Amino acid sequence: MPRPTGSVPAGADAAPVDAARADVGGAVEAIGPVAVCPVAGTAIVVMAVALFCVLMHERSSVVELAKSLRAELDRYSPGGKLPSSRALVERYRVSPVTVTRALAQLASEGLVVTRPGAGAFRAEPRTPTPVAGDTSWQEVALSADTATELVPRAVDASGVLVTLSVPPPGVIEFNGGYLHPSLQPEQALAAALARAGRRPGAWGRPPTDGLPELREWFAREIGGSVTAAEVLITAGGQSALTTALRALAPPGTPVLVESPTYPGMLAVARAAGLRPVPVPADADGVRPELLEAAFRATGARVFVCQPLFQNPTGAVLAPERRREVVRIARAAGAFVVEDDFARRLVHEDAPPLPAPLAAEDPDGVVIHVCSLTKATSPSLRVGALAARGPVLERLRAIQVVDSFFVPRPLQEAALELVGAPAWHRHLRAVSQELRSRRAVMTGAVAQDLPGLALPHVPSGGYHLWLRLPDALPEASLLGAALRAGVAAAPGRPYFCAEPPAGHIRLSFAGVAGPAEIAEGVRRLRTAVDELTA
After folding, report:
1. Which residues of 296-323 are buried (b: 16+ CB within 10 A; e: fewer)?
2. What are the CA-CA distances from residue 241 to residues 6, 383, 385 (Å)?
3. What is the mean pLDDT of residues 398-407?
4. How far is CA 372 from CA 184, 215, 220, 341, 398, in A?
5. pTM reported for the whole predicted model
């Protein structure tokens, strides 16, 4: 049958249509039933593209008008009135909406002041920057606070900032902790946020525990007998870890951690006045006999672990060790904080995943932490804490005191996202891409960096953990790598005690694609050659 005139060819790029749908707030969805007719469907597509083009033109006009008005502000004295909106419309031949938005932009910059019914006026000049004061007294005050603390609460965020900082232009980002924008579901997120904003009560106050539907979704994802009543919605995984450690261990006490482990968790523990104690792990996860010995030696009541695709090693806790870890903690009267951060970053060729520890724990030993952030966007900071028994009330109380609740629009957007067909398509696409990128990076490392040991090739997560030769200093290599145009994460922050050797962590998720991975490893080889020549 001939294609109706003006229809979109099969396989054509639908991105503009998707973007238009998000920008016009779901107007296309609102008239969706008409799309049963092919001609009507074509009209909808054409209309959506046209609306998208109009919106893009409008945004460009706002930027240009704001630029012109900014350049002319010197003509007016402070407090002087700018031309009326009508005059600006006639002078610049733009719409009243464009004028309103441009003036709002200048107002947000502190350059103009708008007064309803009176117009826009040039803002008074900002007061000069005050002379810097003498803050040296704070050194004494802050030091005095630590004099009576068993464990000083000095916060070292360097290990976290490595994965959050953006390298200079031209530097390949092997130190990232999130998906590259090309892997993030940006269109699905935009559509979810638009739909969420139209939900009744979307900007109202949510329940302090989180939206019931979202808690139910997380409970199903965790599995086992976990119920929505045992789930709290948190502002991402980092916030959940902070709440858990503050709830479970008083300041000055030890907390057992895997060695190596996630630097953000070490920073949280130290900020809470806790003393991290390392328990060595291997390719099968934490070693149970050493965990049991650590509980006996320290009297700790908390063990924090990542049983699935551990950061940084990528290890998966072996089946027989899973039962042992929970048994040992239960015998010690201790909790296991399970950071299940990478479950949605599984690679396409991975074997079936084990269930979370919390799904097989009826006694409330395991406190489960998970998040949507890693698999979506750094800004979708929505996660969950799951626990059972009296500890849940303590977790709830600390979270309420710290943050009241997670903003409702963000929770509504998360619900819209995970309930859409695009969600599972996104997860499949990420799974395929991570497997491909891992293969490219492991091959490039084997070819160009044979002196760096790769003890374990992960089947999930987004990075490789490489051990350096003894003759290759970690700090020197990182400096040489930056000079060569590639940034890697240092291994030192992943250890809470002296590291057994130098390491670097290379992320293959935060770069543009396979070509950039190959080029980054080549640059790293240049850095190694510089130090070993």
Report:
1. eeeebbbbbbbbbbbbbbbbbbbeebbe
2. 54, 10, 9
3. 90
4. 12, 13, 14, 8, 22
5. 0.76
